[in-house]
């Protein structure tokens, strides 16, 4: 089924258009076909580009682009994920309840808390690791 | 004093909350304990199998293992539920068994909150679909902001923790930034 088309006029550097026309002649396709293919390729590349995705989701979470735009560029699943995640920001979770202060580590945890340090020696294995 | 809200969490949430507590490196936030804060202020329920998952995670000399150790040291604070025959029909959305059991439990208990950190991938969609009530789904960064709002954790700590997670966990930066802007400022 042919999609509705819209006419686009634009100016481009003359030499670029000449190069494109040479290619069009060799491939025996229309200039329009070449432009459409090039645009589609570019949009697909962008959809997979980390930096572009970051900017798009910035714009989406910030309300500068709408859902349909995100869906058109990133596909439905990713757009839905972002939509649900963004909607969840406005939800208010059930209120946490605290009577006094938080309990001390001694009363709360069973045993000492063992802190992990990024040591280069893994030789100290027989030191007691609190479990 | 109102009753504590019923919360179901998945394994990663507990591990993520425990991580900054046991991480002795300077980039980790210090001075507060988000794991203790969550477990004290909500009634946290998990499938019994989650404890097994945690035990499997322990035993190596890495940060994840240390985090699992800490969660197990607070295991008394978790309400556990044996889930076996009930999940004969797996929640077939490509979610792993542990995650499916948590969702099943949240639906069974009609939990007030379900917290997951599966929000970076399309798994988040499936978790949404599988939960009977979609409005109970939250993430660890969101709940940390809530704990700051109610002054259970200091704002500065939560802010530092969000930065820490974004740097170490590959969390969706824009989502966390938006949360920070909406909930941690003023």
> What is the beta-strand fraction of chain B?
5-15%
Helix share bin of chain B: 40-55%
H/E order of the elements of chain B? Answer: EHHEHHEHEHEHHH
- Largest interface, per-chain counts? A-B, 43 and 61 residues
- Outline type of chain A: elongated
- Portion in beta strands of chain A: under 5%
Structural class of chain A: mainly alpha
Topology order of chain A in helix (H) and strand (E) letters:
HHHHHH
Number of helices of chain A: 6
Number of helices of chain B: 9
Q: What's the shape of chain B?
A: globular
- Tell me about the largest β-sheet of chain A: none
Quick check: average pLDDT of chain B? 91
The Rg value of chain A, from CA coordinates, equals 28 Å
Structural class of chain B, please?
alpha/beta
Q: List how many beta strands of chain A DSSP finds.
A: 0
Mean pLDDT of chain A: 87
- Distance N to C terminus of chain A: 65 Å
Largest sheet of chain B: 5 strands, parallel
Written account of the structure:
With 131 residues, chain A is mostly helical. Helix content of chain A is 53%, strand content 0%. Chain A has 6 helices and no strands. The model of chain A is unreliable at 121-131 (pLDDT under 50). Chain B is an alpha/beta fold and 186 residues long. Chain B contains 9 helices and 5 strands. Chain B has helices spanning 11-22, 34-41, 49-57, 63-73, 97-109, 123-130, 140-149, 155-169, 173-184, and strands at residues 6-9, 43-47, 79-81, 113-115, 137-138. A 5-stranded parallel β-sheet of chain B has the order 3-2-1-4-5. In chain B, strand 4 (113-115), helix 6 (123-130) and strand 5 form a beta-alpha-beta unit. In chain B, helix 7 runs parallel beside helix 9 (173-184) and helix 8 runs antiparallel to helix 9. Chain B is globular and about 45 Å long. Chains A and B meet through helix 3 and helix 5 of A and helix 2, helix 4, helix 6, strand 5 and helix 7 of B.
């Amino acid at each position: 089924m042919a999609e509705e088309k819209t006419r686009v006029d634009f100016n481009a550097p003359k030499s670029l258009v000449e190069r494109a026309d040479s290619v069009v002649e060799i491939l025996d396709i229309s200039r329009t076909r070449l432009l459409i293919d090039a645009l589609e390729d570019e949009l697909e590349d962008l959809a997979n580009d980390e930096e572009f995705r970051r900017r798009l989701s910035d714009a989406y979470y910030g309300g500068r682009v709408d859902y349909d735009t995100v869906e058109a560029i990133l596909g439905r699943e990713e757009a839905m994920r972002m939509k649900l995640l963004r909607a969840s920001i406005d939800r208010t979770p059930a209120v946490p309840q605290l009577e006094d202060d938080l309990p001390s580590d001694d009363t709360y945890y069973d045993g000492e808390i063992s802190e992990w340090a990024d040591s280069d020696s893994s030789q100290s294995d027989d030191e007691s690791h609190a479990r | 004093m109102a009753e504590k809200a019923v919360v179901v969490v998945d394994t990663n949430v507990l591990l993520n909350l425990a991580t900054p507590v046991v991480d002795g490196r300077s980039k980790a936030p210090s001075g507060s304990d988000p794991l203790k804060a969550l477990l004290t202020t909500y009634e946290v329920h998990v499938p019994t199998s989650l404890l097994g998952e945690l035990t499997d995670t322990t035993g190596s000399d890495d940060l994840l293992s240390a985090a699992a150790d800490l969660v197990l040291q607070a295991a008394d604070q978790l309400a556990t539920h044996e889930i076996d025959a009930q999940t004969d029909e797996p929640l077939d959305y490509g979610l792993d068994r542990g995650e499916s059991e948590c969702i099943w439990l949240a639906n069974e208990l009609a939990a007030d909150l379900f917290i997951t950190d599966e929000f970076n991938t399309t798994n988040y969609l499936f978790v949404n679909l599988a939960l009977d009530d979609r409005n109970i789904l939250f993430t660890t960064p969101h709940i940390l902001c809530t704990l700051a709002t109610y002054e259970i954790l200091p704002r500065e700590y939560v802010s530092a923790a969000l930065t820490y997670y974004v740097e170490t966990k590959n969390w969706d930066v824009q989502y966390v930034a938006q949360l920070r802007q909406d909930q941690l400022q003023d």
